[in-house]
Write a structure and sequence with these properties.
The protein is of the alpha/beta class. Helix content is 55%, strand content 17%. It has an eight-stranded parallel β-barrel, surrounded by seven helices. Strand 4, helix 5 and strand 5 form a beta-alpha-beta unit. The longest helix has 18 residues. The termini are far apart. It binds erythose-4-phosphate. Erythose-4-phosphate (E4P) binds next to helix 7.
């Protein structure tokens, strides 16, 4: 399973990259705003900085909602860097734009997906990635992981190549469950990745090994 980090924070991106397990980055307009990145020029420069840090795919989201402008914006984003994947919302004009981008060889991430029907449509349009938001579904008492299972079944039934990118991942158990049910990718905060490291028996075991070494070696 690929690990993407879901942030526009350059320090967190560097830290995950340095760990050696990072396969890419997802951003969205809210994450950019959280880092204080405003204005189109600054946003573009920020995408370039992210591409310089990581070696994998970097999702850059369009803010247009009509077909013509999504195409214009998406083509400009795709030209920024070969690592850029154009993130397009699951709306009617978005689906049409994904089909256009797919025909042109421009990679896409279909975002704001909350149902299996939407995921089927994204795959039919040729999306590279589909992003079901599992945390936001959990927030409204709907099983987000169940959606990943449904999409996995549908995509496997027909051999769709669209990769399932579990988004809105909030914690390490989301990561583990996504891995068990065959999500291709997960994107979450740095804490969801680093949380996988932790086990109290590792900490106490290491402390004992080091203590015993000291006893025998001074
Ligand atoms: C997906 O690409 C989104 O950026 C993201 O995962 C949204 O997560 P949130 O629900 O934690 O905002």
């Amino acid at each position: 399973m690929k690990f993407f980090i879901d942030t526009a924070n350059l320090d967190d991106i560097k830290e995950a990259q340095d760990l050696g397990v990072l396969d890419g980055v997802t951003t969205n307009p809210s994450l950019m705003a959280k880092e204080g990145i405003t204005g189109q020029e600054n946003i573009i420069n920020h995408y370039k900085k992210i591409c310089d840090i990581v070696t994998g795919d970097v999702s850059a989201e369009v803010i247009s909602t009509d077909y013509e402008t999504i195409i214009k914006e998406g083509e400009a984003l795709a030209k920024l860097h070969e690592q850029i994947v154009v993130k397009v919302p699951m709306i009617k004009d978005g689906v049409k734009a994904i089909k256009y981008f797919s025909d042109k060889g421009i990679r896409t991430n279909c975002t704001l997906v909350f149902s299996a029907g939407q995921a089927l449509l994204a795959a039919k349009a040729g999306a590279t990635y589909v992003s079901p938001f599992i945390g936001r579904l959990d927030d409204i008492s709907t099983d987000g992981l169940n959606l990943i299972e449904e999409i996995r079944l549908i995509y496997d039934n027909y051999g769709f190549e669209t990769q399932i990118l579990a988004a809105s991942v909030r914690h390490t158990m989301h990561v583990l469950h996504c891995a068990k049910i065959g999500s291709d990718v997960m994107t979450g905060p740095l804490s969801s990745i680093e949380g996988l490291l932790k086990h109290p028996l590792t900490d106490s075991g290491l402390a004992k090994f080091l203590e015993d070494y000291k006893k025998g070696n001074g």
